[in-house]
Amino acid sequence: MPVHRGFTLIEMLVTITVLAIVLGIGLPGLRDFILNNRQVSTVNEMVGSLQYARTEAIARNRNVTVCPSSDGAGCAGSDWSVGWIVFNDDDADGVMDGGDEVVLRRVEARDNVDFVSDGGIAGGVTYRRNGRSTATGDFRLCDARGASHGKHIVMDLAGRPSVQKLTGSCP
To answer: What are the tens digits of pLDDT across the range 4-14?
Structure first.
C-alpha cells in the first residue's frame, strides 16, 4: 500500500484557524509595542539632547541652544518632529547665524509623532554658562493614539527636563 504524505483538509483548516486567532490577539499588542518604543525613543532623545546642551554650556563656559531644525543648519518654528540641533550660541540669540556657532549634535526627523513646544521655549532652549535656561516651558508629544498616551516634558526654572504623562490635549 502506498504511503501518503501531507495534510488533510481538516488539519489544514484547524491550523489556519489557530493561526488567525493568535494573530488577532497578538497584532494589536505589537502595534502598541512599536508606538510605545517610538515615543520613548523620541522622549529619551530630547531629554538627552537637553541634558547634553546643559552640560556643554557649563563645560565650555558658553551659551548652548537646542532648537527645531529640518535641515540641520538653522532653527525653524516650533515643530520639533522635523528634528533638532544643539549648537554653540555665543550671542545667545537662539538663532544659528554663523560666527563661532558650531552644531554639536543633530537629531533627524521623527515620523508619525506630533512633537511641539509651548511657552518660552517654542523656538528653542538656550542654556547659559551657569547651566540655567533662559526660559521655561514644556514639550508635548503625541502619536496616533491621542492624548491618553501622550508624554509631557517640562522644563523647570533651573533648565532641568522632567517627563510626565500628558494631561492636556495633543498638538
So the answer is: 777 788 988 99
